[in-house]
Amino acid sequence: MSAGIYIHWPFCERKCPYCDFYTFGREHPSFALGGRYLEALVREIAGASQRFELTNKPAADTIYLGGGTPSLMGAETVEAVLHALREVFDIDPAAEITIEINPTTAEAILIDELLQIGVNRLSVGCQSFNDRVLKRLGRVHDAATTRRAIEKMREAGVANLSLDLIFGAPTQTIGDLKTDLDELLTFEPEHVSAYNMTVHEGTPFARHEREGRLTLAGEDEQVAMFELMMDRLAEAGYEHYEISNWARPGFRSRHNSKYWRRCDVYAFGVAAHGVIDGIRYENPRDLANYLNSNVASSRSDLLTERSRRGEIMMLALRRVDGVDWSEIDEWMQADARAYYRAEIDLLAQDGLIEADPNLRLTRKGILIADTVMEAFF
């Protein structure tokens, strides 16, 4: 299958207190290094043939610009990156090209310019349409800004729009989430991503939680919120195709699906994560080193056999439609049902998975997916 390409742009207007990605807000001295970063990024892309020992141009049909806030790049910088990629990769003319956009940046860039250079999918970090919740999340935008941004995108002709929500956020109630969903659906997005609020070690939110200044929804309330998401989006005609993702027919994320199907994804940029021939790699989380390197060094994950097989099962279970056992056996180079017989039998008895004819989570299993997946590691 054709590969995907991920580009990491580590700059954003302000780093959110729950974010653990390698990013820099406008207040950080590194924010001023965008020009040098573009040079280093183009240099890394140009060195891909040598780095990955490519004998020809690999075919690629998805490009995803994430971060950070890659919409801060502007159309001219995005075009320079796309040009560099086309020098090394055989990019499908019908490739899905996605860029993440913060609602505030949509007012500063020309959406039609992005469309003209080939970007055809926009992913907007709405998170909520409730100003109280947005403020508690540390977001720089308010709900009115989000509404204007989405309207601007539709007016520019954006026909593939993905909107992100967070549920279980501080101060958020299930009534707040219902209102968020109602408003989100008025924009008729082609795709919806929804993420449960998670506190990552090393973030301000983790410190606030230790200090007793952060209270999140309890487990029962989080489950109720997830069920509300599933029911409301199903009623509106969206396919729940991955644990955190819903789409109208024909609008599933082609790029993200590559991760769940263990396709090759070439990743460029500081701290970027890729996977080639089933082996994951990560560029160093060191901006100064990245800016001064001729070709980015990387670290490959050395997984134990149990961890490698567990990851295969985890990726399979994320696909809500289910996965044929023959596909899992091919990935694992083993009889997966025999290897995990005890775990599969127990989870099936508990009503958390279905194993026949394909492997899939039940609705009950989806609600506690992380716990189910731990059984395979």
Account of the 3D structure:
The chain folds into 2 domains: 3-260, Aldolase class I (TIM Barrel, Alpha-Beta Barrel); 305-374, Arc Repressor Mutant, subunit A (Orthogonal Bundle), CATH 1.10.10. Helices cover 41% and strands 19% of the residues. It is built from 17 helices and 14 strands. The chain has helices at residues 34-46, 48-51, 74-88, 111-116, 131-137, 143-156, 174-186, 204-210, 219-235, 254-260, 287-292, 305-318, 325-332, 336-339, 341-349, 363-367, 369-374; strands spanning 3-9, 59-67, 90-101, 121-127, 161-167, 191-196, 239-242, 245-247, 265-268, 273-276, 279-282, 299-300, 353-354, 360-361. Helix 1 runs parallel beside helix 3 (74-88) and helix 7 (174-186) runs parallel beside helix 9.
Question: In the CATH hierarchy, what is the class of the largest domain?
Answer: Alpha Beta
Separation, N- and C-terminal Cα atoms: 28 Å
Low-pLDDT stretches are none
β-strand percent reads 15-25%
CATH fold-level assignment of the largest domain: TIM Barrel
Counted beta strands: 14
Q: What level of helicity do the residues show? A: 40-55%
Tally of distinct domains: 2
Counted by DSSP, the helix tally is: 17
Structural class, from secondary structure content? Answer: alpha/beta
User: Gyration radius, to the nearest Å?
Assistant: 21 Å
Mean pLDDT: 95
Give the CATH H-level superfamily of the largest domain: Aldolase class I
Q: Describe the sheet with the most strands.
A: 9 strands, mixed
The outline comes out as globular
As laid out across the biggest beta sheet, the strand order is 7-8-6-5-4-3-2-1-9
Q: Architecture of the largest domain in CATH? A: Alpha-Beta Barrel
